[in-house]
From TrEMBL, chains A, B:
Protein name stated in the entry: Arginine biosynthesis bifunctional protein ArgJ
Principal location class: cytoplasm
Subcellular location: Cytoplasm
An example Gene Ontology molecular-function term: L-glutamate N-acetyltransferase activity
Keywords: Acyltransferase, Amino-acid biosynthesis, Arginine biosynthesis, Autocatalytic cleavage, Cytoplasm, Multifunctional enzyme, Transferase
Quaternary assembly: Heterotetramer of two alpha and two beta chains.
Gene3D superfamilies: ArgJ beta chain, C-terminal domain (3.10.20.340), L-amino peptidase D-ALA esterase/amidase (3.60.70.12)
Organism field: Horticoccus luteus
EC number: 2.3.1.35, 2.3.1.1
Gene Ontology CC terms: cytoplasm
InterPro entries in the cross-refs: Arg_biosynth_ArgJ, ArgJ-like_dom_sf, ArgJ_beta_C
Entry-linked CDD domains: OAT
Length: 438, 438
């Protein structure tokens, strides 16, 4: 999925690459500020970063997709209303508290939008709000309003890196992807899947471009590209209440080729989505599942998701254990429950290019078992370090490589296909979500 | 769900209670034998236990339900055929290898049934086979045939405890439940959810009774009682390829009251199902979710399952962290995807009897947060011990108590309800399934 196979030997190496991707498209500025506050529901102080993405001139050309969770955060409620605003002028993002099902949540989001608009000389309906972090807590609105002027004063047109760093929670590193198209740029940043105190992950994605694509085309394209990118990943099968993908064009550069723009947009989204998995909670292996020759693409997609969400298989991958029995279990569970008419006699499966299943039976021997284990070891991002005070922490704060555990599932019964990305299930995941105390 | 709230202070204490439950109903004998063999697919020797459950006289009155996984094990294929046999005379069970999608698997199961039948002077179609363990490996049929005479010679009519011990894999302890009804007994044993070398869990349940219930009623009752018992639990959302629940009556004692028998059968099944969760992979908290006032029981059931299968919430429970935001996330994910018309403004939720959500917003404060954490600590089965050589192992080999994390979800929109049981997600689970090497 990644357009290139990158490798990084150190955090500095990775940061240098990020900086090279980070040039803002024409017509955008970003600024951040960080401050301390005491949550109403918790006794001890916490720190929050406020991130402002501003357009030099408001634009009619913007698109956004939001979580399908039935408990959307207040910023999602406001954001859906913003889609009918004539123009968008800014995006204001806070981390630490997600403003979900908190009393007065929508009013809080609107007050922050209004204050942001005032600083920029805009209407509050031109400001898109986002929040990520603890679910259930209330936003410290006064502290945020107090921090807004400093955030505004920090606006610069040089790099998106400050925003990529400002929106993260427990992400190990910022995520930036870019593309050159039609004489302009597309630059995207992503946050997630990370935790603030043990609490719910959120994926936030902001994609900026100076290429002029009308609102209608922009929204249609975004709807198409999220399916093979952000909708094709799963860290732990939990759906955030705040997921947001926003795409904004400053319209500075005419679009010579809409199809080329959509291809570039799709590449940026797919690479960012893969980055999100690679930096997922405790992920030490990225698992790529390609399902082909299915009767429908929805079946191919669902089977891939069934594999990357099967806890026992995810644990086996974490242990570099090629436990292909669990692959078969996961497929059989889904087919038995949802597609009982599927002829599994036609199923063929490969792991790391090695055939493991055909004709209804496993194709295994001791030699293959050793080769399968070697494939898993080669795809491991880092080896697990012993726990400190019982807590397992990731051993890297950069992505050492982009290799995946490669699974191919051939259903032999149609022509539809799908590719999905997931992670393994590790001690680092449990430590992140059970052991940390705040 | 448990008919009584038991507490055990030691393994000896628990074993004494098991022995008191273990008297066989009239007309049954059990025997086991253990032997060593070298798997065809693995270099080092392994140990297998063979368990034989025999009726003194074959019976027409037996019932069984099997996994819905689309890759059923060979014993499941044979077992489904056995349902149309006029009579059942014995059940033969092996652990260590599950005989799923292995070349010649059905022939292997039939050879073992034939040899068992010959020892008992029966027809092979009167023998129900079961296997549990590694998926993908082939059964050591010759070694099993060689061990059958010793297994047969070990048959005794006194206690079911040898069988309860013989069918386990990595279960921490055997599981037995019984009931007295209509002047006779119902005795059930369960295996699972455990692992043999990191591999797929199987649940095996055998319920024996001397109360005479005709085949048709027996099968209808079993179909009814598995829904609120074994179908209402989840350790890790993975569906085994070998799950089996068999119910056999020796018909020695007339049934005075079919309804009373079904109530007793339901209690035995519900208690065994809860035992399976309590002894699940790395489970340190049993989570009981009661969903009520739902429009349909299927919605109530699915919402409960969505909660007990939400990894982030399971991790929070493992850490005694009352992260109710994750409860809301899990419910919102399911409703958003599958029941979008549900009016969540009517939702009320309690954790440990404490109201946490109502009127669309959380009902939290610092005092409640402390009380919620105390409830989780009180329901913990054991505290996690530091890892030895990086591996987390359970600190107990008996169930210290039967307390659960108690969640009530009131949808306020109907009259249907459901209760489901799940476990937390712990380091012990990951160690069981990723760290152990064979």
């Amino acid at each position: 999925m990644a357009s290139t196979q990158l490798e990084f030997s150190s955090r500095a190496d990775h940061r240098a690459w990020l900086a090279a991707q980070a040039a803002l498209p024409l017509g955008f500025r970003v600024g951040t500020s960080r401050f301390e506050f005491v949550p109403r529901e918790a006794p001890k102080p916490a720190r929050m970063t406020l991130t402002l993405i501003a357009l030099d001139e408001p634009t009619t050309d913007f698109a956004a997709v939001f979580t399908r969770n039935a408990f959307p955060g207040a910023p999602i409620v406001v954001g859906r209303a913003r889609l009918s605003s004539p123009e968008l002028g800014a995006i204001i993002v806070n981390n630490k508290i997600s403003n979900v099902c908190a009393p007065g949540g929508v009013d809080a989001a609107e007050r922050i939008c209004a204050a942001t608009a005032q600083l920029l000389g805009r209407k509050s309906t031109e400001v898109l709000p986002s929040s990520t972090g603890v679910i259930g807590w209330t936003l410290p609105v006064d502290a945020i309003l107090a921090a807004l002027p400093a955030t505004h004063a920090a606006l610069t047109a040089t790099s998106i890196l400050p925003a990529a760093e400002g929106i993260v929670t427990t992400d190990l590193y910022p995520k930036i992807r870019c593309a050159e198209v039609s004489g302009g740029r597309i630059v995207g940043i992503a946050k997630g899947a990370g935790m603030i105190e043990p609490n719910l992950a959120t994926m936030l994605v902001y994609i900026l471009t100076d290429v002029a694509v009308p609102r209608a085309e922009l929204r249609a394209m975004l709807t198409r590209v999220v399916q093979p990118s952000f909708n094709a990943i799963s860290i732990d099968s939990d759906t955030s209440t705040s997921d947001t993908v926003a795409l904004v064009s400053s319209g500075r550069i005419p679009c010579a080729d809409l199809a080329a723009f959509e291809r570039a947009l799709r590449t940026v989204c797919c690479d960012l989505a893969e980055d999100v998995v690679r930096n997922g909670e405790g992920v030490r292996h990225v698992i790529r599942v390609h399902v082909k020759n299915a009767v429908t693409s929805s079946l191919a997609f669902a089977l891939g998701k069934a594999v990357i969400n099967a806890p026992l298989f995810k644990c086996a991958v974490a242990g570099n254990d090629a436990n292909v029995g669990r692959l078969v279990q996961a497929i059989g569970k889904y087919v038995g429950a949802h597609a009982p008419d599927t002829d599994l006699q036609r199923l063929r499966m490969w792991l790391g290019g090695i055939e493991i299943f055909a004709g209804g039976v496993f194709q295994l021997d001791r030699t293959k078992e050793a080769a399968l284990a070697a494939h898993l070891q080669h795809a491991e991002l880092y080896t697990s370090a012993p726990p400190q005070n019982g807590v397992f922490a990731p051993a890297v704060d950069f992505p050492p490589h982009e290799r995946c555990v490669e699974i191919v599932i051939d259903l032999g019964s149609g022509s539809a296909e799908a590719t999905v990305f997931g992670g393994d299930l590790t001690h680092e995941y449990v430590s992140e979500n059970a052991d940390y105390r705040s």
